[in-house]
Amino acid sequence: MSGGFLPEGLTPSLLALVLVAALAAGWVDAVVGGGGLIQLPALLLVPGLAPVQALATNKLASVFGTTTSAVTYQRRVHPDLRTALPMAAVALAGSFGGASVAALLPASVFKPVIVVALVGIALFTAFRPALGEVTALRHTGRRHTGTALAIGAVIGFYDGVLGPGTGSFLVFALVSLLGYDFLNASAKAKIVNVATNLGALAFFVPHGSVVWGLGLSLAAANVVGGYLGSRTATSRGTGFIRAVFLVVVTALVVRLGWDVWTENVRG
């Protein structure tokens, strides 16, 4: 499949809608992850765009937004890179592997499991109000590093295969398994998310799946959203991020749950 510059049939009004979605996705991604919930469905509205092209183009746009967010967090929060960078390296490899599987396995295989996981995450977070308020690391030394690498590998693979909610999964894992507060978890998640996007692109670009003109247009909107979102998150703090996290996870449950239900009805 060869990626074009702009899809045929993309009207100015539809392009405007997709750009607004990319701006909103960049903001949500920067705060707590889950921007794919907005951006990927918008891309699937574009006539003639195959699902793999939508996924690949989404990754191109997202890598610009997540990089902007990561840089902004780094300047304002100064997350510890000794955890974030090894996680990012493993996540990049996992995402490349996931992307190579994406063309072979339908998303319907994963969606029911993801919905159940998201429901569990939402309930766990909602009923533990102190979760992620302050950083209280659960592990140190090799165990801390090993847990971080495992998180990066598993979530990186998921991002390559499907993607929506990757940032939210990263934030939750960093809060619940490693003991970071929501602000520091979001800062680290952005660094890892840059790597997962790059890993997927390393597979998609040589296969010609990226629609470059559309992807770069969305990237510009994603950058603006990512910058605004990361500044909002760092100024409002952990409580704000936790609230947005619950809203985004609930929206992911509704969206993916609806997909599972409609696919079963059609089946």
TrEMBL record:
<keyword id="KW-0813">Transport</keyword>
<keyword id="KW-1133">Transmembrane helix</keyword>
<dbReference type="InterPro" id="IPR052017">
    <property type="entry name" value="TSUP"/>
</dbReference>
<comment type="similarity">
    <text>Belongs to the 4-toluene sulfonate uptake permease (TSUP) (TC 2.A.102) family.</text>
</comment>
<feature type="transmembrane region" description="Helical">
    <location>
        <begin position="240"/>
        <end position="258"/>
    </location>
</feature>
<feature type="transmembrane region" description="Helical">
    <location>
        <begin position="200"/>
        <end position="228"/>
    </location>
</feature>
<keyword id="KW-1003">Cell membrane</keyword>
<feature type="transmembrane region" description="Helical">
    <location>
        <begin position="109"/>
        <end position="127"/>
    </location>
</feature>
<keyword id="KW-0812">Transmembrane</keyword>
<keyword id="KW-0472">Membrane</keyword>
<dbReference type="GO" id="GO:0005886">
    <property type="term" value="C:plasma membrane"/>
</dbReference>
<feature type="transmembrane region" description="Helical">
    <location>
        <begin position="148"/>
        <end position="180"/>
    </location>
</feature>
<dbReference type="InterPro" id="IPR002781">
    <property type="entry name" value="TM_pro_TauE-like"/>
</dbReference>
<protein>
    <recommendedName>
        <fullName>Probable membrane transporter protein</fullName>
    </recommendedName>
</protein>
<dbReference type="Pfam" id="PF01925">
    <property type="entry name" value="TauE"/>
</dbReference>
<feature type="transmembrane region" description="Helical">
    <location>
        <begin position="85"/>
        <end position="103"/>
    </location>
</feature>
